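In response to a reviewer's request, we include the raw inputs and outputs for one of the modeled complexes. The two entities were modeled together in a single run.
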Amino acid sequence: MTETSKQAVQTTGHAWDGDLQEYNNPLPKWWVWTFYATCVFALVYWVLYPAWPVGKGFTTGLKEITYKTSGGQEVTTHWNTRALLAEDIQTGAEGVKQREYLEKITSSSYEEILSDPDKMAFVRSMGKVMFADNCAACHGSGGNGVMGLYPNLVDDAWLWGGDINDVYTTISQGRNGYMPSFAETFNDEQASDVAAYVLSLSGIEGDETSIKRGDVIFNGQEGGCYYCHTHQGTGMKSVGSANLTDKIWTIANVPGAETYKDKQAAIKSVIMNGVSRQMPVWHDRLPDSTIKLLTVYVYSLGGGE
Amino acid sequence: MSETEHLYQERIPIFPRSVKGRFRSLKWGVLFLAYGVYFLLPWLRWERPVGPNQAIIFDLEGRLFHVFGLTVHPQDIFWLAGFLMLAALLLFFVTTVAGRIFCGYFCFQTLWTDVYILIERLVQGERPARIRLSKQPWNAEKLRKLGLTHLLWLLVAFVTGLTFVLYWGNAPELIVAFFSGQAPFPAYATTFFLTATTYVMAGLAREQVCIYMCPYGRFQTVMFDKDTLIISYDKERGEGSEGRHKIAKGFKTQDERKANGAGDCIDCGYCVQVCPTGIDIRNGLQVGCIQCALCVDACDNIMDGLGWERGLVGYKSERELEGGKTHFFKWKSIGYGVAIGIVLALTVWSMLNQSTFDLHVRKIRQPLYVTLSSGEIQNSYELKLNNKTNHDVTMRLEAHGLNDAVADFGRFEEIVIKPEKTLRIVARVKMTPAPGMPKQQDFTFRAVPVGQDDIQPIDSPARFFIP
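The model returned the following C-alpha cells for the whole complex.
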C-alpha cells in the first residue's frame, strides 16, 4: 500500500485484499445543498398543490380558488390553472378595468358612444378581438367578406340596412338571405337577357334589344324580379334584396370578370342557381353588451349608411 | 476535509485601518453628497399642472418619466442613448486625465463599501481588534459584535433597496403601502433583490467586485498613458540604493539613512493596512488599485510625523515619476472632450426641441381599399394623436395632396385631446379613380391646432391605394 500524496484524490480509508481502495469524490457542497433545498420545496409543494395520483383521483392540495361560472354560480375548487384563469378574468385588475369600460358602453346610447373618442377607442380595441373570435371566420378579420359567400362590411352597401339599429338587429336576430332559382322559369336566352338588363342597371351597356327583352321579363309577370328588387332595381332592406344599380356586387363576381360575356355569365349563374345565405342568430350566444360592442364596431368599419 | 488543489485562490480577509487626511475628507464629502441626493430625492416635491407632484418619478404604468421640469415620453428613448454615451465618454475622459478616480470616489461599490467598513469599525473596533475578533473562537462577544454588524449592514441594504423603489411611485403613498403589505409585488421583489445584492456586494464580496467582476476595472488600462495621473510610490525616493528600512539605530534622520543607502520609506506598512482592496501600492500600478488615495493620506501622516516632505505616495503620472512634466492637453483628452461636447449639444438640442404633439398615421391594410356603391374607392387609416403638453389641445384634422378626395373623420373632425393622452381615430378617405391614375398616391394628413399658439400644424404622410 502506497502512501497517498496530498495532491491525489482521497480514498475512503478502507483497504480490501491488502491494496484495493475506494476513491472518495464527494459532490460539491453547493450542489448537495441545492438538492436538499429542492427536496424541501417539493414537500411544501405536495401539501399545497395537486401532486400525487391516488387511485382514479389525485391529491388536491390545500390551496383553493373561488370563482364564478358563466351561470353565475360560485365554485370553490382545488388549485388549478383553469380556475386560476377564470378567477383572474373575474377579479384581476385588467378584468375589472375591462368590465368597467364595458359597463360604460352598455349604459351609453349609440349617439354618445360614436361621439366619444375614448369609448370609440375601447370599442375598436375590444371589438377587434370579439370580431376576430366570432365574426372573422366568415367575414374575414378585416371585415371585407368573401365574394359570393359573405358580405363585405367595410363598404357602404347594407343589404339589411346600415342604420346602427339595423346592424344591431342583424347581429342579434340573424338574417336569412334568399333568392329563388330561376332554372325552371327561364330558358338560357331569357336568363341572358335578364343578366344584360341587370348589368345595364349599373351602367354596363350591352346589346340593346337583349336589354329591352330583359327589362320586360324583370319588370313583368314572367320574371317578377321587381317584387324584391323593385322596378328601379334598388332592392329592399326589408327582405335583404340587393341594390342592382350600384357598383357593388356581393354574389356575382362582376368586377372580377374581364369581358362582358363573363360578367353576363356570372349574373346568369346567380339567376339560374339562386342564393341562400344565412347570418346566424347571436343573442343566445353572446351577452347583449358584446353584441352592442360589435354593433358599433361593425358600424364603424365602413361608417354605416 | 480533502486536501485537493483549489482552482481559485481563497479570499484573504481584509481589515482596512481607518485613516484621516485630505483625501479621506474629500471622500466623506462625496459620500455625504451622494447619499443625500440618492436617499432624499424621492421625497422632493414638485408642482406640475398635470401629473404627480414628485420631483423625480418614473411612472411605468403611465409610461412617463418626470424629471423635475422635464417629461420624458417613451419615444424619447434615444435621450437615454445620449446619456449613456455621455456617461461613457465622461468616464473615458476622466480616466485618461486622472486615472480611476471614478472608482475611488464615485463608484457606488466604493461608496457603499466605505459605509459598510465604517459600520464594521464602529461596532467591532479598529483593525487589530477586528483581526482578533475574527480569529477568536465563537463566543457571546463575537456573536454579538458580528451579529450587530451584519444586522446594520442589512438595514443599510434594505433602506438602499427601498429608496430605489420609491423612485418608481409616489414615495409617501408607496412607503405606507409597502409596510402595510399593499404595494405591488415588483416593489417587494426589487427591494429584496437590491437588499440582497447590496449586502452581498458591499458586505461580503467587496474588493472582489472591483478585481474580478467589474468590466471597467479590466479595460480602463487601455485609456491610460504616460500622462495619466495614478497613485504612485516614488520608488527612487523611498528605496534609495539599498531598499526601504525601518526606523532603527543609524536610520533615524534622512541624512543618516542616505548615508547608509536607505530611502525615505520606513516600511511601516500603514499604506497597506488602510488599503480597502488589500494591495501594496509600493509594488507599482496594479489592477487592484481603485485609486481611492487612502494610502496617500496614510503616508502623508507618517511623513508629517517624521517632519519629512510629503508625497512619497501621491498622484503622479508616469512621466512625472521619470522627472518630466504631466501634460493634461493631449490628443486623447482633447478628443474625448470634443466628443463629450458634441453628444451633450445634440442631447440638449433634442430636449429643447422636444415635440409637443405627435401625429402618426397607420394605413388599415385589411382590406387595402374598398369599392363603394357610387364606384368611389375608399381607404381607411388609423390616426394616432398624442398630446404631450400639460393642457388640453383642440385639433382640426385635414387631408391634403389628393385631388378631390374627401376625408371623413367620423365625428372627430375637430377633437380635444387631454394632456398627456393619446387618442386613436379612424379616418376614411374616398375618391373617384380617374383612368390612368397611379395605383399608389402619397398624401398627408394634417392636424391643425385650434386657438393654440404654442403648437405648429403637424403633417404625417399616408398613401392611397386604388385597384
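As requested, we also summarize the result in words. Residues 29-48 of chain A form the longest helix (20 residues). Residues 11 and 23 of chain A are 4 Å apart (CA to CA).
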